[in-house]
Amino acid sequence: MLAFAKRTSCTTTDPPLADSYRALLCRGKLEGGGAASAHAVESLAMLERDLPIIDLKRLASRDARESKACAEAMARAASEWGFFQVVNHGVGRELLEEMRREQARLFRLPFGTKDKAGLLNGSYRWGNPTATSLGQLSWFESFHVPLPSISREDCDRGKLSTLRGVMQEVADAMSQVAGTVAGMLAENLGHEAGGESAFPAGCDGTTCFLRLNRYPACPFAADSFGMVPHTDSDFLTILCQDQVGGLQLIKDSRWVAVKPHADALIVNVGDLFQAWSNNRYKSVEHKVVANSKAERFSVAYFLCPSSDSSVGTCGEPSPYKPFTFGEYRRSVQDDVKRTGKKIGLPNFLKRSTVHGLDDDTMDLSS
């Protein structure tokens, strides 16, 4: 029998995850667990892998062959893995450690303060209160912050008086990494850099996001995801994770665990880059597994365009219909409402096979 935590009041630190999922967890046990239990069985024999490591210092080499080899290695990793690690990236270890301390202070606030006080533009999220199956259960809390919100004063309070400045430094540093990596990957596909043709179009300091994540220790780790399987809906994600581990991704049709690297940032290709590259680069499904003993922290930078920006293509013919980022996000939201999960890019194929329907007969609003 599951030993559930006592009802969580609004004065406690952690979000009321166990309480919210009480009936769901009981039902999952009775029904054999479904997707989450399958994930637990997979994790028992999980293969741990090192992601490809790209030394960004090589890009600045005076030897053109060295710089080219680095860019090609990056493009190869984006094509074969959809994920890779970067070192010598310019984001200082001391800054990232300071960010970790600020995150800890932020997430130690009472749940009622995080949920109701409008911190960081009201960007607090936790779990999935609308989950209808164990496969939709996520054991996390986060602040998903639009970059313009960092400069506002709603996080300058009490023990959070230094949070804003550290977040801005991290966002600026990760933005430099994202711009460098995205630009090189685009150049590899023939895009001419510089001027008005800067890549990705429509991305600047007002359109991107910084996300602070905490995955509390989970007493039901065998039945729960830290974050359900998904792909990212941006161009690129830059991730700094701690040494607890838990990130897993699909490689060669099976889940593999990503081995943490203390000095590396993780880069993963998002849906928009896969579409822009005509599927040369891969937006790969990934997840976070729950941990029964240790909490996990991470910080992620999402390289996103404005809502009205057209995603475009590196060349024709493209398998995808033209769409804007706003249209894509609305489609994903509709996916979740209709099916309980994201469909994403297949909805925008010129000849879609979603639900076995062609474009002429598919009604995404049904």
UniProtKB/TrEMBL annotation:
One of its GO terms (biological process) is gibberellin metabolic process. SUPFAM superfamilies: Clavaminate synthase-like (SSF51197). Pfam families: 2OG-FeII_Oxy, DIOX_N. Its EC number is 1.14.11.13. The keyword Oxidoreductase applies. InterPro entries: DIOX_N, IPNS-like_FE2OG_OXY, IPNS-like_sf, Iron_ascorbate_oxido_reductase, Oxoglu/Fe-dep_dioxygenase_dom. Its cofactor is L-ascorbate; Fe cation. Belongs to the iron/ascorbate-dependent oxidoreductase family. GA2OX subfamily. This is gibberellin 2beta-dioxygenase.
